[in-house]
Amino acid sequence: MKTVLITGCSSGYGLETARHFHEQGWNVIATMRRPRADLLPTSDRARVVALDVTKPESIARAIEESGPIDVLVNNAGIGLVGAVEATPMSTVREIFETNTLGVIAMTQAVLPQFRARRSGVVVNVTSSVTLVPMPLAAVYTASKMAIEGFTASLAFELAAFGLKAKLVEPGYCPNTRLAQNGADRLQGLIPEAYEAFAAPIFEAFATPKETTTEADVAAQIWQAATGDTDRLRHPAGADAVALAESASGFFG
After folding, report:
1. Which CATH superfamily includes the segment(s) 3-246?
2. Closest CA to 132 of 249, 12, 1, 15
3. CB neighbourhood size of 64 (10 A)
4. Annotated catalytic residue 13
């Protein structure tokens, strides 16, 4: 029986993905900063493990506690919307610590066991902001674009050992806590000079033509982790698929 370790499982994509893999008969290691065992089915195939991807000691403990795993899903992330001019560098560093450096650190932590067994898949969850430029998302986009490049290059290294690296690119999902976290950090990030520019953008966010669901993302993570295709990028959600198709140079 195979085992998946998923980061950021307290809500949203991570929680739905944990439930999806469990329904498929896998062992699931659902990690979160503040563990809540009640979020998952009571089962000997579902475990909740404490993990903060920004802390090396927390990563080391979680990997040791989890034992051998077959798939790593790097899902933990922080959202952000705001003007670059108004974004404190402390906030920029916070975003990169989780969205970028946390992904790299988790990947480094599992690769020794993957390489030794010559078996394993790393699935990194980014965002549809990497498919086309979007306003007021420069810092968030930068943190996710870094993982796009990281994963594309990593895939070559891993292929030498029979391993895989994949990307899942979710569209806009208003229901997730990621969006709520982004709203919390918005305070002070839209200066008066930017208000006229930002107003129609936020109006469009409030009434999107197409959106993504947590189930869309979980399904694409499953496909990326278990499918036999060598495809690197997996857009998730109707809006993300449409963006990927319009950015044909990116989608492959």
Report:
1. NAD(P)-binding Rossmann-like Domain (3.40.50.720)
2. 249
3. 10
4. no
